[in-house]
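Notes, Module 5: Reading structure tokens.

Key idea: the token line is not a picture. It is a compressed description, and you learn to read it the same way you learned to read a sequence, by spotting repeated patterns. We will look at two proteins. The first is printed below with its tokens.
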Amino acid sequence: MIRFARSGRLHFLLMVLGLLAAAPAAVAQDAPPAPAAAEPAPGPADPTPAVVPAPSMPTQPPANDPDLDQIMLLRDNGSGEPGEQTSSFRPADRSMHFKVTCKSMKWGSTKARWVFTALQTTSGDTGQVAEAEATTLVANEFTGKLTLPRDWPVGRYQAELFVDDKLVCTIPYLVTPPLGEMKITEHTLFRDDGKGREGEVVTAFRPTDRNKHFRVRANGLFPAGTQVKWVYTAVETDQGRNQAITEVVFDLDSDYDVLNSNLELPTDWPVGTYKVEILVGEKLWYTIDYEVKPA
């Protein structure tokens, strides 16, 4: 097995960005030849909304004003007030709280407002979500609250604080279930389009489909640094049973809700049954069972 650190464009595809780090592991005797790596190619347009990769939430989000001291995201305590601090929100966090503290006191007439924007979400909804006046508890502290009457779509958002019409800070944040509560909800098989990209959606492959594409979608965002492993096996073909083809391990360099991979063989695939196992942090999350059928 070869382990890959995530860097640059590799042969696996994650979200619309090239991310394959494909190198065959040891192949069982009489197994199909190890897949050959193809030239990296940009991912295809996704017909359904997918979250564009976003950096993990930093401890202190980007600030535009050097006078800023602390920026906090806070969950609701159940009574409409700020509760525990967090680095991201869950979809069920219908009320979100934000707090910005400055190093110096802001005296005099100060007008402050928050602008909340959905950058990209799995629902496809984007654009400004709300605008509201900022609450000033003390002269150097600004708080804001954002509420939705239903669960929030998974995705990337930002909160901007303006003081006297000057942008003071931009706070990027994520809405996603924690990794321990996430699951892969669906998968799709694609033929190659002849250019190394996802083409026609299929339920089974033909032997001549030498380059096979797979996509899985989760109900949340896999955080940057998550280890993902794809394990490819020929379950039963005329060449034998349960024969290892290859496996690839890599660490995500950003946050993703969609994982794509492609597997290419320099010759036709043997007819039979196959599977792809997807492990996250050494735990089996999902299995794709598929067939290669005669044309």
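Here is the second protein, with the sequence above and the tokens below, as before.
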Amino acid sequence: MFFDGTARSDGAGAGVVFVSPEKQVLTYSFVLGGLCSNNVAEYQALIISLHMALGMGIIDMEVYSDSKLIINQLLNIYEVKKEDLVPFFRQASHLLKGFESVTLNHIPRKENRMADALANLATTLALSEGETTNIPVCNRWILPSLDTSDHKGSNAITIATTNEGRLENATNRVFETRKVAK
């Protein structure tokens, strides 16, 4: 399970990604109520994800985050010095005891991109209390190449991805002599 939290001056969000042993991916994005620090948003994202995992009946879990502070506090490598983090630390520690086995792993930010994107999405959407929305996230979208003889004066973007889903090739071509039909 990957989690991330983000806080801005206009709101906060959490992103959670569950990956099953069969590589099925479940993604969730949550708007967090009220303004908070980024570390509080990170803890809230973790607490939400732990509640969800326990609710799904997950008993063994690997947890990944790009927050070195949160992971190291939960591993008792770092002391929780900020008073506003103490209740979140306690709740997360309590929830972690509900699993038969759990490992906490700090990862680089680039390996936590999906959870980060979901947290940022929630912050950007800033839904009202009780409001929900469903946003399908597609694995890939490849635009067909445009025949330059049929299109004048348009911008075209060609995107190809690898099986791993990484962006392999992205080009922006400007066709000056053709126009895209409406």
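Summary for the second protein:
- Confidence is low (pLDDT under 50) at residues 161-182.
- The domain at 2-125 is CATH 3.30.420.10 (Nucleotidyltransferase; domain 5).
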